[in-house]
Amino acid sequence: MTSSTKKKLRRNIEGYLYVLPVILGVLIFTAFPVIYAFVCSFFETPLKPIGEGFDHFVGLGNYFKSFSDAYYSRKFFTSLGVTFLYAATYIPISLVLSFLLAVFLNKQVKGMRFFRVLYYLPVLLPAVCTGMLWNRITDPYYGVITKALQNIGINWSWFELPQTSMVSFEFISLFTLGGNMILWLAQLKNVPKSLYESATLDGAGKFRQLVSITVPICTPMILYNVIMSIIGVMQTYSQVLTLTGSKGSGLEDSLLFYVFNIYDNRVTHFGYACALSFILFAIIGALTAVVMKTSKWVYYTEEG
Description:
Layout: H1 3-40, E1 43-44, E2 56-57, H2 61-68, H3 70-105, H4 112-124, H5 127-137, H6 144-151, H7 162-173, H8 178-188, H9 193-201, H10 206-217, H11 219-233, H12 238-244, H13 258-264, H14 270-293
Antiparallel strand pairs: 1-2
Helix pairs in contact: 2-3, 2-14, 3-8, 3-11, 3-13, 4-8, 5-12, 11-14, 13-14
């Protein structure tokens, strides 16, 4: 073996050693759990330590249970309906508001950086922490926001009634608009100023420039945000749990999101819960494929 070959081999070994922690992390904490859950989805088994084996093999029975068994079917379609309702209402509202917020914060005004940081701060907080915080300030008895609304004659029930629970949750979720806002800002910085200058010379107003220049150039970011929002919304769980406690399956199932259905079956019907998770994976994949298939409206500039 020549000296150059030895040096190349040593460099390769050093490189693999540097990335070894990441590879092990992916294999142990991602790949293995996914494979194990996929295998468990074919067995009727409760949750138990790894290595104790599986119970009765049911094949695709856990996957068909959501459609054939009346009890499981009701829970499945109810949770799916709640999740789709939240996605259909929250995603458009959040995308529009975050875009308008980014347009406003994109202006070259003194002190605008402070407001960008201010709007992004809620995104840095874990969902569990924000859920616990909102749970306190919206408490029906001593919550700060609840008391303030009562002082002006508004008795909002928040998460005490099924009629107000979904609207309340969507309102609270809007405080994380900063995540999409940052992405919009990055895209807005790439819009050539020469286009605005030409449009101004042609007599186009601000609104016309927004519709005819800003929005078309931002369509790649719209596509990205739609896909990422679908993936995130379909997995809604932690914030609802901290906001409502055990009411995810209460409140007449008004906040019974799909992941709650998985959570409710995790112990006694672990195999079925695993099957539900892969059904969710298929649903997210199908929705993503539909969005990508219908993305002819996306305009890509020469820079990509």
